[in-house]
Design a protein that fits this description.
Elements: H1 12-19, E1 57-59, E2 62-66, E3 72-73, H2 76-82, H3 88-97, E4 120-122, E5 125-127, H4 132-137, E6 142-147, E7 153-158, E8 160-164, E9 167-170, E10 176-179, E11 184-185, E12 188-189, H5 196-201, H6 206-209
Antiparallel strand pairs: 1-2, 2-3, 4-5, 4-10, 6-7, 6-10, 8-9, 11-12
Length: 231
């Protein structure tokens, strides 16, 4: 069994919010540590959204899908309906019906095929939104969780090469590749406010504006980390 060690860093602002929260406060931050034996547990990616898709359209912090009448739809349930995304329970039941393996846990992964710079690759199939093809052709580097053929995991940048129409091969031999927003570089937390490059690349800027513990800052509002990820 391979053991992975993770260091969880809580900023002063987040710690102050946690310590001041009541136990029944729905905004209270809870940390769950899960140990997964990759030698006996298979990590699978189940795509629910029909392809091709243009994913979410964005203007600033606004995220929406345009309906057939040209109206912007922002309500969560309608966003799913317009994109043909079924309820999660239906996806789970379909997965269990076609797999002999026992499902022990699942987690939503809403970025692939929805947000810029977010893809998923498994069994020779790449899940991406239509607009992502231009990035793929330019050799865009995707920071990704990679599950290797020996069932070990690592985080690394992955590029893709087109070998035929709609066929893309990753730069690393892998059973699964899932990319997302880059939050850590060289073992250090990225301050997406102070790091201009990462701020511009942040796919869902609502996270930078609306969520309470996203900004890495001190209680007085000053940055807790500099652009190099140092205090």
């Amino acid at each position: 069994m391979k053991t992975f060690k993770f260091r969880i860093t809580i900023t002063p602002a987040a710690r102050k919010g946690i310590e001041g929260a009541q136990s029944d406060n729905p905004k209270r931050v809870r940390i769950c540590v899960a140990k997964i034996d990759l030698s006996t547990t298979m990590i699978d990616f189940v795509r629910a959204i029909p392809l091709p898709t243009r994913g979410l359209e964005r203007i600033g912090a606004a995220a929406f899908v345009t309906d057939k009448n040209g109206m912007r739809v922002t309500e969560d349930s309608l966003l799913r309906t317009l994109q043909g995304i079924p309820p999660v329970i239906e996806v789970i039941r379909e997965f269990e019906a076609r797999n002999r393996n026992e499902l022990i846990a699942w987690s939503g992964q809403g970025n692939p095929a929805q947000n810029e710079g977010c893809i998923a690759y498994q069994n020779g199939e790449l899940t991406h939104r239509e607009q992502e093809i231009a990035f793929l052709e330019r050799g865009h580097r995707y920071p990704s969780l990679v599950i290797l053929p020996d069932n070990t995991a690592r985080i690394q940048d992955v590029t893709f090469r087109g070998s035929a129409p709609d066929i893309w091969k990753p730069s690393v031999s892998a059973n699964l590749v899932v990319s997302g927003q880059l939050l850590v570089r060289d073992g250090r937390a990225i301050d997406s406010y102070g790091d201009v490059e990462r701020r511009q690349a942040y796919c869902d800027k609502r996270h930078l504006i609306r969520f309470p513990y996203c900004r890495i800052s001190n209680p007085d509002g000053t940055p807790a980390l500099d652009e190099a990820g140092k205090r």
